Amino acid sequence: MDKQNISIQLYTARHFKPFEPILDFFSETGIKNIELFGLESIDVNHFQQMMESSNISSKSTHVSFEAIDNSDNIIEKANKLNIKHVIVPAPPARKNAEFKNTFDLNEEEWISFGKNLSKHVRKFEDAGLTLGYHNHSYEFIPLPSGKLPIECMMEHDENLKFEIDLGWTVAGGADPKVWIERYSEKIVACHLKDFFDKEKDMLDHNNQSAVGDGFIDWKELLDSIRETKCELFILEHDDPKDYKEYTKRSLNNLGKI
């Protein structure tokens, strides 16, 4: 896999700020695109200057579902940075609750969330953007009816896009190839996330490895997802001890595939 086809989620390096040297490092490794997070609260002029200085672009960003209600702000910032894909990575946060509790929804609540997210699709499309959703592991844990949350929330607008996190899909006990095929027309991006040991807790960030150092068969998955409309292949580690080593090892491993 060519390095220039690989992006990285800036969230990976959030604990190593300031971002200027981080972007310079990514550029030096051959990465030409980053995925932003928290677009609703960043200084876009500052980020634009940093990215231009590092010769890096951003074609996608994560934003909170709550920020979508102020869609004009998101659309303005996305267009300023030439971002194409706006991705919501989770349902609305629960006040003073752990992140995992965000996903503790019943079937009716998942359906309602999907409908509410889908209501914004047309406005983003009219602005030349796509609106999509990024999964964690929880969306693949069956509800009492047997239906999966991912199905409940993705079925309300055919133009709601999907950024499939292949690692989290595995962590949820699902076969990513099934969902790659199921949503082949929706997938615009994917996250590449790997784990050292499938017998250990995959929600433990310490079990996350450089891509290619874990147990996931990346050749098989990449062959599968290349059959879709996926445009972005994005590295992500939720809490690396050394983001530089993680990035270099992941790029080196993927370069052999």
Question: Can you describe this structure?
Answer:
α2 (44-54) links the parallel β2 (33-37) and β3. The longest helix has 12 residues, at 107-118. α1 (19-29) runs parallel beside α2. It is built from 11 helices and 10 strands. It is globular, with a radius of gyration of 17 Å. The protein has helices at 19-29, 44-54, 65-68, 71-80, 107-118, 121-126, 149-154, 166-171, 176-182, 218-225, 243-254, and strands at 6-9, 33-37, 57-62, 85-88, 130-134, 161-165, 187-192, 194-195, 208-209, 232-235. With 257 residues, the chain is α/β, with parallel strands linked by helices.
Structural key phrases:
36% helix, globular, two-stranded antiparallel ribbon, 257 residues, TIM Barrel, alpha/beta, 17% strand
Q: What order do the helices and strands come in, and which of them pair?
A:
Layout: E1 6-9, H1 19-29, E2 33-37, H2 44-54, E3 57-62, H3 65-68, H4 71-80, E4 85-88, H5 107-118, H6 121-126, E5 130-134, H7 149-154, E6 161-165, H8 166-171, H9 176-182, E7 187-192, E8 194-195, E9 208-209, H10 218-225, E10 232-235, H11 243-254
Parallel strand pairs: 1-2, 1-10, 2-3, 3-4, 4-5, 5-6, 6-7, 7-10
Antiparallel strand pairs: 8-9
